[in-house]
Amino acid sequence: MKTVSGVVIVLLCVIELSHGGLMLWPKPKDMDSDERGCNQVVQSATFFVVMGHDSDILQSAIKRYNGICFGGSYLNDTLSPLCAKPTTQLTGVHINVLSTSTTLQLGTNESYTLTLNGGDKGLLVAETVFGALRGLETLSLMIIQHSAQYYIPVRTAAIRDFPRFSHRGLLIDTGRHYLDTTSLSAILDAMAYNKLNVLHWHMVDDQAFPFNSTTFPLLAEKGAFSWRHTYSHADIASVLKQATDRGIRVIPEFDMPGHCKSWGKGYPKMETSCPGVHQHFSHPMNPITNYTYNFVQKLWEEVSHLFIDPFVHLGGDEVDTTCWQNNPSIQQWMKAHNRTDYHTLQAYFERRLVETIITQPSVDRSSIVWEEVFTNRGSWKIPKDVVIEVWKSQATDKKKLKEVVSAGLRAVYTTPDWYLDYHQGPGHQLVGDWKYLYTIDPYYDINLTPQEKELIVGGEVCMWAPYEDASNFMSVVFPRASAVGEVLWSNHEAASRNPTQETEDRLHQFRCRMLRRGITSAPVVYGGYCPIPWPFHYKKPF
């Protein structure tokens, strides 16, 4: 009778596990697991043991994931299968980082293998510490807490994983609505959970200039919403430290020569003067005066001493030339230089910016620019180290992307269909449009040679913020950005273009995980729940 009961218990475990198993997001490239049993995880202070190269980044991650895995945040996780009778015990994971390098840049190796072979020790192997971070995140999604026990709902697992694209970005817009450093910290954590690795920080815009420049203090003094809505050098250093610890690159964007109204509040000589001319966008910078280029050079010198990534984003989008066309000095300049197309004036500006400022030793960066810089390039041969961010066309129209890579230039892909300030797709309610975002892919609806494919370095989901600030940011971005995160990490081409029930189940559980980690992700399913309700915090003002 005892034997029969034991068999029944084991069968129940197998049935539960076959329904659930490992619910990982984003899905690893290659994964084999034996669901005929489960691992009891024995918590200890030495659960994670470094066997290869150590670093401050790795030690910080071990401390962080000890808290995530064993901090009690998965109590009574009824969405996960129960481990009625553990078949093995896992007492630790050895971490072997093969390289001493802690350099984070485009193309950094983020691959890892994670092996649980039924013994008491697991093994995480990565070429770089940043691959180890991705492996630790995957492992954290495997560990479940139920009652007082921790377990992994498979007996063995062999995971071989690496990203599909090396640039997996989230754009944030602090030029329209300010995000304080606590919000930025939460955003970086959420990105790490989703294996997003580039924070594209669109820092300034027409509405505000929150960067507290020490070189040009009037930029923030006159251009920020208030002194409370600014970022000091110390604030930025703190953001960069946390980002690096999570394997996230931070690329600053100071958009120019358009979207610069906030610049002109403190330094009006930057703007082109055209009294009485009304146009959709603000007056652009004056591209024919040395004052503009000297100003921009000094600002980029300051920025490049703060931000460590090899790339900066120069903007270059939506430059309305109406003001240039109505400025007498620019009209004379155009005539003297035998020019009639005012878009070539933008090409002149961009060429001087890239070739005489950004690449010079005092700044020494490579550039990312919006697609208009490529479109309006005229006779300028854009250097190969410039990356074009394609953005203007709907997901089914990739003509511009094809033009860019056919010209031998690298591209980052985005689309208005990945703009989170819009409701996306037909018939979807609120953030239920994650399913539509999931169907979009840089490689779909385009014919590419193998060489052209290699030139698409990744993509970005964009949180432009005309109506978004810290009060609603997370629930607007997630889980929608999670959907794009899996597109950019996982083997999306080999899977169904449309999300399946299995996709929804995994994302639903992942959303519950994010909630338990303090990320206020919106619901995934139409009617449903997470085992632990979100503890809404309200402090009465009386």
Arithmetic mean pLDDT: 91
Compute the number of strand runs.
18
Question: Rg to the nearest angstrom?
Answer: 25 Å
Largest sheet: 8 strands, parallel
Number of helices: 18
Secondary structure class reads: alpha/beta
Strand percentage: 15-25%
Helix content: 25-40%
Topology:
Layout: H1 2-19, E1 30-34, E2 39-41, E3 48-50, H2 56-70, E4 88-90, E5 92-97, E6 112-116, E7 121-126, H3 129-142, E8 144-146, E9 149-152, E10 156-161, E11 167-173, H4 181-193, E12 198-202, H5 218-223, H6 233-245, E13 249-253, H7 261-266, H8 290-306, E14 311-313, H9 322-325, H10 328-336, H11 343-358, E15 366-370, H12 371-375, E16 387-390, H13 399-406, E17 410-413, H14 434-438, H15 450-455, E18 456-463, H16 473-477, H17 480-489, H18 501-516
Structure write-up:
With 542 residues, the protein is of the alpha/beta class. Helices cover 34% and strands 16% of the residues. It has 18 helices and 18 strands. The protein has helices spanning 2-19, 56-70, 129-142, 181-193, 218-223, 233-245, 261-266, 290-306, 322-325, 328-336, 343-358, 371-375, 399-406, 434-438, 450-455, 473-477, 480-489, 501-516; strands at residues 30-34, 39-41, 48-50, 88-90, 92-97, 112-116, 121-126, 144-146, 149-152, 156-161, 167-173, 198-202, 249-253, 311-313, 366-370, 387-390, 410-413, 456-463. An eight-stranded parallel sheet has the order 13-12-11-18-17-16-15-14. A six-stranded mixed sheet has the order 1-10-6-7-5-3, covered by helices on one side. Strands 4-2-9-8 form a four-stranded mixed sheet. Helix 4 (181-193) links the parallel strand 11 (167-173) and strand 12 (198-202). Helix 2 packs parallel to helix 3, helix 4 packs parallel to helix 6 (233-245) and helix 8 (290-306) crosses helix 11. It is elongated. The termini are far apart. Mean pLDDT is 91; it is low at 1-20.
